[in-house]
Each structure stands twice: as structure tokens, then as C-alpha cells.
Design a protein that fits this description.
The protein is mainly alpha-helical. The protein has helices at about 25-35, 40-45, 50-60. The chain has a domain at about 25-75: Arc Repressor Mutant, subunit A.
């Protein structure tokens, strides 16, 4: 149980995150993921940071659009 006046920590409160993606970006993201592109390459391709890519990976995996791969976030290299 949380104490009445205990401080609350908000995840990613000050992080610069790409929260909104358009469908064509997600389609391209999935293609690049299948090709084995790593988190750095994906961040560069979508002009965002690695935190945003990691969250997109979690979202797309949870939705069943991408699968786990041997190289994980770092790709197949």
C-alpha cells in the first residue's frame, strides 16, 4: 500500500520520446526490424533516440507485429 504523502515517480517524465508514429513509419520499422537493423540504425532512420526505438520495439512486439530475434535490440550483426 502506498503511504498518503509518499512521493510519486513518473516514468519518462522528462524524456524526449517519439510517442506518435504514422502507419507508414511503423511499416518501415517492421521491415527494418526483419532485416536485422539495430537500435542505433533504427534511431538514425527515424530521426529519434534509442529510448523511442526501444519503446516502439516493446509496443510492436506486444501487438504481435514483430518477433524476438537473436540479436535483440542490437540487430543481427
Amino acid at each position: 500500500m502506498v503511504a498518503k504523502h509518499e512521493p510519486i515517480y513518473l516514468l519518462f517524465e522528462d524524456a524526449d520520446i517519439k510517442w506518435k508514429w504514422i502507419e507508414s513509419e511503423l511499416i518501415r520499422f517492421r521491415e527494418l526490424w526483419k532485416e536485422g537493423k539495430g537500435i542505433k540504425e533504427l534511431a538514425s532512420e527515424f530521426r529519434t533516440n534509442q529510448k523511442s526505438i526501444a519503446l516502439a520495439v516493446m509496443d510492436q512486439a506486444e501487438a504481435g507485429h514483430i518477433r524476438q530475434r537473436d540479436g535483440g535490440l542490437f540487430g543481427d550483426k
